[in-house]
Amino acid sequence: MSDPVRVLYDTVATAYDEALSSELDTKPLDRALLAGLVDSIGDGPVADLGCGPGQVAAHLRRCGARQVVGIDLSPPMVTTGRARHGDLGFAAGDLRALPLADGVLAGATAFYSIIHLHPDERPVAFREMARVLRPGGQLLIAFHIDAPGIPMGTAHRSENFLGHPVTFDGWFLDPDEVARIAAAAGLVEVAHCVRAPIPDAEYPSRRCYLLLARPA
């Protein structure tokens, strides 16, 4: 990811935690998919890639995952996560160069972290995610597809986030294109679903959840 993304999340770490630490309370599909991932991977280690302050990582633990680590580009996000979820592991790291050994994970999640990757960065990130999964390991990713006035396949520039004057791009992605990039990295599609936004609870975008696996 580019430096502006790190600056963005360094800047909003505290506000992000305050605003979104309980976001899964209003997202039953997200909770069900995360529980299904944990059920599928058994007792093996799982990482949340682009974890922010750890709300998804914490839910993975609540679902029964025994070894959970959150990895985020932003050191302040990592610090915030450790302060809120002291029973989880956290580390600073980049999707394009994950600080994990080959084949160490039984599972991984990446909820909305790939939306900041430019097109030429996405294949690198998916190769990294495939590298750290063990054979048979699974990866659950979530991303925005489109929103009112923002078509699929385009980037939307924002100048403010959570009350902070920060400039950043967020990409709205084609699920078929994401699946093709993942396949080129050695990950096969297991399932995907698309849902509408939850009124008055989140940004008004359609979202895709894509479950991938590294072949055994």
From TrEMBL:
Any one GO MF annotation of this record: methyltransferase activity
Gene3D superfamilies in the record: Vaccinia Virus protein VP39
Residue ranges constituting the Methyltransferase domain according to the UniProt record: 46-137
Keywords, in A-Z order: Methyltransferase, Transferase, Ubiquinone
Gene Ontology BP term (one): methylation
InterPro entries in alphabetical order: Methyltransf_25 (IPR041698), Methyltransf_Superfamily (IPR050508), SAM-dependent_MTases_sf (IPR029063)
Pfam families referenced in this protein's UniProt entry, alphabetically: Methyltransf_25
PANTHER family hit by this protein: METHYLTRANSFERASE
Identification of the protein by name: Ubiquinone/menaquinone biosynthesis C-methylase UbiE
Organism this protein belongs to: Allobranchiibius huperziae
Classification lineage: Bacteria, Bacillati, Actinomycetota, Actinomycetes, Micrococcales
